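Q: Here's a chain of 236 amino acids. Please give me its 3D structure as C-alpha coordinates.
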Amino acid sequence: MSVFMPHLAPIVVLLFLGTVFVLGISLLVLFYGAARRSAFFAKLGAGAAATIAASYLLLLGGVSLASSEQTLPPDGWKYFCELDCHLGYSLPSAETAATLGPELQQISAHGKFVVLRVKTWFDERTISERRGNGPLTPNRRKALLVDDTGRSYEPSPEGQFAPARSGTRSTAMAQPLQPGESYTTDLVFDVPKQARGLRLLLLEDDPETRFVIGHENSLLHKKIYFDVEALERMGK
Protein backbone atom coordinates (compact mmCIF):
# COMPACT_ATOMS: atom_id res chain seq x y z
CA MET A 1 0.00 0.00 0.00
CA SER A 2 1.34 3.43 -0.96
CA VAL A 3 -0.02 6.91 -0.23
CA PHE A 4 1.21 10.23 -1.56
CA MET A 5 1.41 13.55 0.25
CA PRO A 6 0.08 15.84 -0.96
CA HIS A 7 -2.33 14.27 -3.40
CA LEU A 8 -2.11 15.65 -6.96
CA ALA A 9 1.08 17.40 -5.87
CA PRO A 10 1.95 19.27 -9.11
CA ILE A 11 -1.56 20.72 -9.36
CA VAL A 12 -1.91 21.85 -5.74
CA VAL A 13 1.61 23.31 -5.65
CA LEU A 14 0.95 25.28 -8.85
CA LEU A 15 -2.37 26.43 -7.38
CA PHE A 16 -0.59 27.61 -4.23
CA LEU A 17 2.12 29.45 -6.17
CA GLY A 18 -0.42 30.96 -8.57
CA THR A 19 -2.56 32.18 -5.68
CA VAL A 20 0.47 33.77 -4.01
CA PHE A 21 1.38 35.50 -7.28
CA VAL A 22 -2.12 36.87 -7.95
CA LEU A 23 -2.50 37.90 -4.29
CA GLY A 24 0.79 39.77 -4.56
CA ILE A 25 -0.43 41.60 -7.66
CA SER A 26 -3.64 42.54 -5.84
CA LEU A 27 -1.68 43.96 -2.91
CA LEU A 28 0.50 45.97 -5.29
CA VAL A 29 -2.65 47.47 -6.79
CA LEU A 30 -3.87 48.26 -3.28
CA PHE A 31 -0.59 49.96 -2.36
CA TYR A 32 -0.58 51.85 -5.66
CA GLY A 33 -4.07 53.14 -4.97
CA ALA A 34 -3.09 54.17 -1.45
CA ALA A 35 0.05 55.93 -2.67
CA ARG A 36 -1.81 57.77 -5.46
CA ARG A 37 -4.83 58.37 -3.24
CA SER A 38 -6.97 56.62 -5.79
CA ALA A 39 -10.07 55.15 -4.18
CA PHE A 40 -10.75 53.08 -7.31
CA PHE A 41 -7.42 51.23 -7.31
CA ALA A 42 -7.37 50.91 -3.53
CA LYS A 43 -10.82 49.29 -3.50
CA LEU A 44 -9.98 47.13 -6.51
CA GLY A 45 -6.79 45.82 -4.90
CA ALA A 46 -8.38 45.30 -1.49
CA GLY A 47 -11.42 43.56 -2.93
CA ALA A 48 -9.37 41.27 -5.15
CA ALA A 49 -6.98 40.38 -2.32
CA ALA A 50 -9.82 39.62 0.10
CA THR A 51 -11.72 37.53 -2.47
CA ILE A 52 -8.68 35.52 -3.49
CA ALA A 53 -7.56 34.87 0.09
CA ALA A 54 -11.05 33.91 1.26
CA SER A 55 -11.66 31.60 -1.71
CA TYR A 56 -8.33 29.83 -1.25
CA LEU A 57 -8.82 29.40 2.51
CA LEU A 58 -12.34 28.09 1.94
CA LEU A 59 -11.03 25.49 -0.52
CA LEU A 60 -8.14 24.63 1.80
CA GLY A 61 -10.49 24.06 4.74
CA GLY A 62 -13.04 22.17 2.67
CA VAL A 63 -10.50 19.66 1.37
CA SER A 64 -9.09 19.23 4.90
CA LEU A 65 -12.53 18.53 6.38
CA ALA A 66 -13.20 15.96 3.66
CA SER A 67 -9.93 14.11 4.35
CA SER A 68 -9.73 10.85 6.32
CA GLU A 69 -7.14 9.49 8.71
CA GLN A 70 -5.02 6.58 7.48
CA THR A 71 -2.79 4.07 9.24
CA LEU A 72 -0.39 2.24 6.97
CA PRO A 73 0.18 -1.52 7.36
CA PRO A 74 3.68 -2.90 7.99
CA ASP A 75 4.47 -3.05 4.26
CA GLY A 76 3.08 0.44 3.54
CA TRP A 77 4.94 3.35 1.93
CA LYS A 78 4.39 7.05 2.50
CA TYR A 79 5.61 9.28 -0.34
CA PHE A 80 6.49 12.96 -0.08
CA CYS A 81 6.51 15.10 -3.20
CA GLU A 82 9.75 16.92 -4.02
CA LEU A 83 8.09 18.59 -7.07
CA ASP A 84 10.00 16.72 -9.79
CA CYS A 85 10.35 13.40 -7.95
CA HIS A 86 9.18 11.56 -4.82
CA LEU A 87 10.81 10.16 -1.71
CA GLY A 88 9.25 7.05 -0.21
CA TYR A 89 9.32 6.18 3.50
CA SER A 90 8.58 2.85 5.15
CA LEU A 91 8.94 1.33 8.62
CA PRO A 92 10.93 -1.93 8.37
CA SER A 93 11.26 -2.63 12.10
CA ALA A 94 10.12 -1.60 15.57
CA GLU A 95 11.23 -2.82 18.96
CA THR A 96 11.06 -1.83 22.62
CA ALA A 97 13.74 -1.91 25.31
CA ALA A 98 14.30 -0.77 28.88
CA THR A 99 17.96 0.09 28.27
CA LEU A 100 20.08 0.92 25.23
CA GLY A 101 23.77 1.14 24.43
CA PRO A 102 26.86 -1.01 25.09
CA GLU A 103 27.21 -2.62 28.51
CA LEU A 104 29.44 0.04 30.07
CA GLN A 105 27.53 2.95 28.52
CA GLN A 106 23.95 1.86 28.87
CA ILE A 107 21.19 4.39 29.42
CA SER A 108 17.83 3.58 30.99
CA ALA A 109 14.48 4.79 29.76
CA HIS A 110 12.21 6.85 31.99
CA GLY A 111 9.44 4.58 30.71
CA LYS A 112 10.39 2.37 27.77
CA PHE A 113 12.43 2.97 24.65
CA VAL A 114 10.73 2.46 21.30
CA VAL A 115 13.31 2.08 18.54
CA LEU A 116 12.00 2.57 15.02
CA ARG A 117 13.96 1.99 11.85
CA VAL A 118 12.73 4.22 9.03
CA LYS A 119 13.76 3.57 5.43
CA THR A 120 14.14 6.48 3.00
CA TRP A 121 14.07 5.61 -0.70
CA PHE A 122 14.53 7.88 -3.70
CA ASP A 123 12.08 6.17 -6.03
CA GLU A 124 13.65 6.50 -9.46
CA ARG A 125 10.30 5.70 -11.09
CA THR A 126 8.90 9.06 -9.96
CA ILE A 127 11.52 11.29 -11.63
CA SER A 128 10.27 13.76 -14.23
CA GLU A 129 11.80 13.56 -17.69
CA ARG A 130 13.60 16.89 -17.30
CA ARG A 131 15.12 16.30 -13.88
CA GLY A 132 18.18 14.24 -14.74
CA ASN A 133 20.07 11.92 -12.43
CA GLY A 134 21.44 14.40 -9.87
CA PRO A 135 21.30 13.92 -6.09
CA LEU A 136 18.36 15.10 -4.02
CA THR A 137 18.51 16.63 -0.54
CA PRO A 138 15.26 15.80 1.28
CA ASN A 139 13.11 18.55 2.71
CA ARG A 140 13.02 18.80 6.49
CA ARG A 141 11.16 16.04 8.32
CA LYS A 142 9.54 15.81 11.73
CA ALA A 143 8.85 12.54 13.53
CA LEU A 144 6.33 12.03 16.33
CA LEU A 145 5.20 8.89 18.10
CA VAL A 146 1.50 9.08 18.97
CA ASP A 147 -0.38 6.86 21.45
CA ASP A 148 -4.05 5.90 21.55
CA THR A 149 -4.89 8.92 23.76
CA GLY A 150 -3.53 11.34 21.15
CA ARG A 151 -0.44 12.24 23.18
CA SER A 152 2.65 12.68 21.01
CA TYR A 153 6.33 12.14 21.80
CA GLU A 154 9.42 13.51 20.07
CA PRO A 155 12.63 11.48 19.67
CA SER A 156 14.67 11.18 22.87
CA PRO A 157 17.89 13.27 22.68
CA GLU A 158 19.69 10.76 24.93
CA GLY A 159 18.27 7.73 23.20
CA GLN A 160 19.28 8.89 19.73
CA PHE A 161 22.98 8.44 20.55
CA ALA A 162 22.62 4.93 21.96
CA PRO A 163 22.42 2.96 18.66
CA ALA A 164 25.60 4.65 17.40
CA ARG A 165 27.46 3.65 20.58
CA SER A 166 26.46 0.05 19.90
CA GLY A 167 27.84 0.24 16.36
CA THR A 168 24.46 0.42 14.63
CA ARG A 169 24.59 2.41 11.40
CA SER A 170 21.98 5.16 11.15
CA THR A 171 21.85 7.83 8.45
CA ALA A 172 20.37 11.28 9.04
CA MET A 173 17.18 11.93 7.10
CA ALA A 174 18.72 15.04 5.56
CA GLN A 175 21.39 12.97 3.76
CA PRO A 176 21.22 13.49 -0.05
CA LEU A 177 20.35 10.51 -2.26
CA GLN A 178 20.88 9.55 -5.88
CA PRO A 179 17.89 8.13 -7.77
CA GLY A 180 17.32 4.54 -6.67
CA GLU A 181 19.35 4.91 -3.47
CA SER A 182 18.01 4.28 0.03
CA TYR A 183 19.17 4.36 3.63
CA THR A 184 17.78 3.68 7.10
CA THR A 185 17.46 5.99 10.10
CA ASP A 186 16.96 4.86 13.69
CA LEU A 187 14.53 6.95 15.73
CA VAL A 188 14.48 6.38 19.49
CA PHE A 189 11.52 7.49 21.63
CA ASP A 190 11.18 7.34 25.40
CA VAL A 191 7.50 6.81 26.22
CA PRO A 192 5.55 5.78 29.35
CA LYS A 193 5.41 2.03 29.97
CA GLN A 194 1.62 2.08 29.74
CA ALA A 195 1.56 3.80 26.31
CA ARG A 196 -0.52 1.74 23.87
CA GLY A 197 -1.69 1.96 20.27
CA LEU A 198 1.58 3.56 19.16
CA ARG A 199 1.80 4.99 15.66
CA LEU A 200 4.56 6.92 13.93
CA LEU A 201 3.70 10.25 12.34
CA LEU A 202 6.33 11.35 9.84
CA LEU A 203 5.73 14.87 8.53
CA GLU A 204 7.27 17.50 6.33
CA ASP A 205 8.62 20.30 8.50
CA ASP A 206 8.42 23.23 6.09
CA PRO A 207 6.04 26.04 7.15
CA GLU A 208 4.66 26.67 3.66
CA THR A 209 3.10 23.18 3.58
CA ARG A 210 0.43 24.46 5.99
CA PHE A 211 -1.03 26.43 3.10
CA VAL A 212 -0.93 23.70 0.44
CA ILE A 213 -4.38 22.30 -0.35
CA GLY A 214 -4.63 18.60 0.49
CA HIS A 215 -1.43 18.54 2.54
CA GLU A 216 -1.67 16.80 5.91
CA ASN A 217 0.06 19.79 7.53
CA SER A 218 -2.78 22.11 6.52
CA LEU A 219 -5.40 23.18 9.06
CA LEU A 220 -7.82 20.39 10.10
CA HIS A 221 -6.36 17.86 7.64
CA LYS A 222 -6.23 14.26 8.85
CA LYS A 223 -2.86 12.50 9.18
CA ILE A 224 -1.19 9.42 7.73
CA TYR A 225 0.47 7.14 10.29
CA PHE A 226 2.65 4.04 10.38
CA ASP A 227 1.33 1.21 12.56
CA VAL A 228 4.10 0.59 15.11
CA GLU A 229 2.27 -1.97 17.23
CA ALA A 230 1.50 -4.12 14.19
CA LEU A 231 5.24 -4.35 13.50
CA GLU A 232 5.97 -5.25 17.13
CA ARG A 233 3.38 -8.04 17.00
CA MET A 234 5.03 -9.41 13.88
CA GLY A 235 8.38 -9.36 15.65
CA LYS A 236 10.06 -7.14 13.05
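Q: Can you summarize the key feature?
A: Residues 2-66 form one domain.
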